[in-house]
Backbone:
């Protein structure tokens, strides 16, 4: 057991990485709820349990903080997808696992997804460009996956656009449903994109 | 042949509806290019060949003008889809014709689509709500079409979300291609959503 004084000291001495994680966690929640302009740095510092000057010292301006949130959440999403796809080799399994990782991110890191997909895009400018870059990267990865699945070279990019758009829009729906899971969203989208609506009557 | 004076008089006497159409046409082009905030009322009045006070007198503030653009272009899109779907009865034909009308709007009224899909959404607030309402309406129409095509009641709404998202994202791609047509985009999306990627290897 440490004395209160020691405890206070050790709280101030948290490693920089841990502090930054706390600040980013709090910032993602607040930016998700209010958007970039309306988000209050006071609410973020309250949520992180640190002072506002400490946030500025660690992560820079509000703009820098928002950019850091976009990069962390976007990186997390991209890594989750790449990791999941790498685990399997059959094309339909790769697609299932990639979509599953995507929907798991949307549901597990709901605030992160809302920052990426809703709040950053509506800001325009550099934030929107950052998001567009990530989305382009995701479309490239999906196009490569589709090419391996037998999609003709000329078709893989437009089909990847369609698939990413379908997954994003299905997330809009999924976030409003009380009992949805990443598995059920993935199965839905596979029914749509892999099996095809034309076969629905056959079942 | 009229004298210059008469010609000037008749130009000022254009019916209100024609004047408003000219103003909206010019506004859609300028809002598409620059977005709501950066669009200049001077450029709009130049494009419409009328004075700025006349625009304010006819259509109200810049905000009112942007709202009028959203409503006209959104109404045009919805009517095009409803009209195309009403022409045929087989579910796969309805889907093809509905998607075709959608892509034809995107390509033929490119500026209108950009105002609806890119510029209005990034404004947030009342503009984004207007767009969200139209999109919700479109998803409802698509869900009804899918239900008629044999889609189970519980699946038709999420599948409509996925389909609308896929069509929007494919439009992003299509607008960057030099030689794309509404037919080719429709066929692509039908390959994806109706036939299913799982069948691609069979062909």
Residues:
């Amino acid at each position: 057991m440490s004395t209160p004084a020691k405890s206070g000291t050790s709280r101030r001495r948290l490693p920089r990485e841990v502090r930054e994680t706390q600040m980013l966690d709090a910032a993602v929640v607040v930016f998700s709820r209010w958007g970039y302009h309306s988000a209050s740095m006071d609410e973020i510092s309250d949520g992180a349990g640190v002072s506002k000057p400490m946030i500025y010292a660690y992560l820079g301006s509000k703009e820098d903080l928002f950019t850091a949130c976009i990069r962390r959440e976007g990186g997390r999403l991209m890594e989750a997808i790449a990791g999941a796809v790498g685990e399997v080799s059959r094309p339909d399994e790769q697609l299932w696992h990639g979509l599953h990782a995507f929907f798991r991110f949307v549901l597990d890191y709901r605030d992160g997804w809302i920052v990426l997909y809703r709040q950053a895009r509506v800001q325009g400018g550099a934030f929107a460009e950052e998001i567009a870059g990530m989305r382009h990267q995701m479309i490239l990865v999906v196009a490569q996956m589709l090419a391996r699945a037998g999609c003709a070279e000329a078709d893989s990019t437009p089909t990847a656009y369609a698939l990413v758009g379908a997954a994003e829009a299905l997330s809009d729906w999924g976030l409003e449903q009380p009992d949805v899971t990443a598995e059920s969203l993935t199965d839905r989208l596979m029914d749509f994109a892999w099996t095809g609506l034309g076969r629905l009557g056959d079942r």
